[in-house]
Design goal:
The complex is a heterodimer. By secondary structure, chain A is mainly α. In chain A, about 55% of the residues lie in helices and about 10% in strands. Classes of the chains: A mainly alpha, B mainly alpha.
Chain lengths: ~100, ~240
């Protein structure tokens, strides 16, 4: 089970999206997120909607120039993720 | 020195363990249960976030370990508090029943916990086989080993085998990464294996019981140190 981490888990994809936005200064265009998180357009759209619904990101700008900004809740999610990741790494298992 | 024969041994023979030590062992077991509960809390936080099977197994294992050590703590505390009556007339009374019930909980809960930990570290193919076996037997297979080993001397041998696998996995992990967090977890499992191994020799020398408990305390202190390090970290990428 610990060796079966070839496929990214959903939580890992969400982390990659949030991390990409944070690395871009807290706000990023969908194209940047798409490359940063290594996702297809359809999957990115689904995850962005999910993250926005959870309040981890919010959409800014108009349709032609839309951006996604990470919220405080999103930053907290990232912090918790990295702490938890370190915790599981201590046990030598991937999550 | 006041001694008691309250059947705390693992080989189903009465032993002479100093009664005063039961206050210490109760504290050690209670602290171990508390640290286990903290690990359950950490695992649950991530399980809620990710629905990860690994997080679930870690949470499940330490939940059972919490129950196991809580039962031991209760048994030791009861033995210590029962001391005046016990000293007066060597009648076991309810002590025998409490001891027997607590140790039954301990045997089952500990083996389920160790099995779950071993399952967490199993390669995927072996893990799938175990899952199929559990499914085809309606989950009874999971209970078979603990019940079979209930209250017999082989409990510690089984615990050593199951924990040794987990400990070796963590040893290799530390060898590869050389990170203090990995060392702390590896040491904790090493201490738990040693705890069970030493208890096998208690019939030859009751003072080994003290050493075994000391090792167990060191192991859970090591896990606590890891938890403090992780929760004190700034939550950034490592």
């Amino acid at each position: 089970m610990a060796d079966a981490a070839e496929r990214r888990s959903k939580v890992s994809i969400l982390k990659d999206i949030l991390q990409t936005i944070q690395d871009k200064g807290g706000s990023a265009r969908p194209t940047h997120i798409l490359y940063g998180a290594n996702l297809s357009h359809d999957r990115l759209k689904k995850y962005l909607e999910s993250l926005a619904a959870e309040g981890f990101i919010r959409r800014t700008g108009d349709d032609g120039q839309s951006f996604y900004a990470i919220t405080r809740k999103g930053v907290e999610f990232l912090g918790t993720y990295y702490k938890m990741n370190r915790f599981f790494k201590a046990f030598g298992v991937g999550v | 020195m006041v001694s008691a024969a309250i059947g705390i041994d693992v080989l189903s023979e009465p032993l002479l363990i100093p009664v005063w030590f039961y206050s210490y062992s109760a504290a050690i077991y209670a602290a171990s249960a508390l640290v286990s509960l903290l690990i359950v809390f950490f695992s649950y936080r991530f399980f809620r976030m990710s629905k990860s099977k690994t997080a679930f197994l870690l949470m499940f294992s330490f939940l059972f370990l919490t129950a196991a050590f809580a039962a031991l703590a209760f048994s030791s505390a009861y033995a210590y508090l029962y001391r005046p009556f016990f000293q007066a007339n060597l009648d076991l009374g309810s002590l025998g029943l409490v001891n027997s019930l607590c140790f039954s909980v301990y045997y089952i809960a500990a083996v389920v916990a160790y099995l779950s930990l071993a399952l967490m570290y199993l390669p995927k193919d072996a893990s799938d086989f175990y899952k199929k076996l559990s499914k085809s037997t309606g989950g009874m297979f999971v209970l078979y080993l603990p019940l079979w080993y209930l209250d017999i001397s082989d409990f510690h041998v089984l615990s050593i085998v199951l924990l040794a696998y987990t400990m070796l996995k963590n040893l290799f992990n530390f060898y590869k990464k050389r990170v203090l967090d990995n060392f702390l977890v590896m040491f904790a499992f090493l201490a738990m294996v040693s705890f069970h191994a030493l208890l096998l020799f208690v019939p030859f020398d009751p003072t080994i019981y003290l050493a075994a408990n000391g090792l167990l305390a060191a192991g859970f202190a090591s896990l606590l140190a890891m938890l403090i390090r992780v929760s004190g970290s700034d939550g950034r990428r490592s």
